[in-house]
Specification:
The protein is 28% helix and 20% strand. It is of the alpha+beta class. Strand 1, helix 1 and strand 2 (36-41) form a beta-alpha-beta unit. It is elongated, with a radius of gyration of 29 Å.
């Protein structure tokens, strides 16, 4: 009896890609036409979950940080470095309020180098 199997051909390459349901199977069929073997690995592993059990804290929520703000005025390269125990987002809002209200900010350089006239 003649065999119905395709003759064995040497694979050009093998690749390992993350498994994504619905996409990975289609990609495997396409790559088979080019004699490229595919292996799948889990997108997320138990090891990854166990090594990083906590969610990351977003930058704006962090407190007790040292931060640097750059002047938003064109042609100005001044920066302000500060330290706060407040959430960074709240401290940034205070800087914006003081800047727009024209109030002096604590711990800044002399006014001639850090404040700008707004028109």
């Amino acid at each position: 009896k003649p065999s119905k199997r395709k003759p064995l051909t040497k694979r050009k390459a093998n690749i390992t890609i993350p498994y994504i349901k619905g996409v990975s199977e289609k990609l495997r069929r396409i790559l088979q036409n080019f004699n490229i073997g595919t292996n799948f690995k889990p997108y997320s592993t138990l090891r990854q979950k166990l090594l990083h059990p906590k969610d990351r804290v977003h930058k704006g929520v962090k407190a007790d940080v040292i931060y640097r703000l750059k002047c938003e005025e064109p042609q100005c390269n001044n920066t302000y470095i500060g330290e706060t125990s407040q959430p960074l987002k709240e401290r940034y809002k205070q800087h914006l309020y003081k800047q727009h209200a024209g109030l002096p900010q604590a711990n800044t350089r002399p006014p001639s180098t850090t404040t700008h006239n707004r028109t």
